[in-house]
Amino acid sequence: FRTQPEKEAVPAPVSQPAPAAPETAAPEPKAQEKKLETLERKDGVYVGEVLNGKPHGSGTMTYSPDQKNKIKTYVGAWKNGLRHGQGKMEWTSGTVYEGAWVDGKRNGQGKMTWPNGDVYEGEWTDSTRSGHGRMTWKSGNVYEGAWVDGKRNGQGKLTWISGNVYEIGRASCR
Asked: 0.85 cut: is pTM over it?
């Protein structure tokens, strides 16, 4: 009686787990998309990005000639219907402001140029020169220093075209 040798048990192949299906992120809820539109407003005509019926994003407002602020155009950023971000405003007089806006007011760094050649470059708060700034008059005289409520205030340096220098808030005068 012969017995057959036992066959060595061969382990069954280990199956690899099936690759997981790639995870798909749940779609983000869509906000109402900005779109270019023309808005007729009582103070002028706006052309640009709009969100919820208001200027929002980049756009241009051309103001009516009869509005009281005598603004000609504003080109720049808007947020919820107000000038907000970087922008450039031109008045009918030829005065130009280019710089930062927050909630419809000049706030942050900006440059105002008047038609007579005067230039202010510096900080603004609530549409008023406040903080550090430099005013250069058409004559060539320059003031650089502190401003509060639109007026020179505190430390600064006034340099006349003649070369004379007056340092305000310090004991020296050259």
From this structure: no
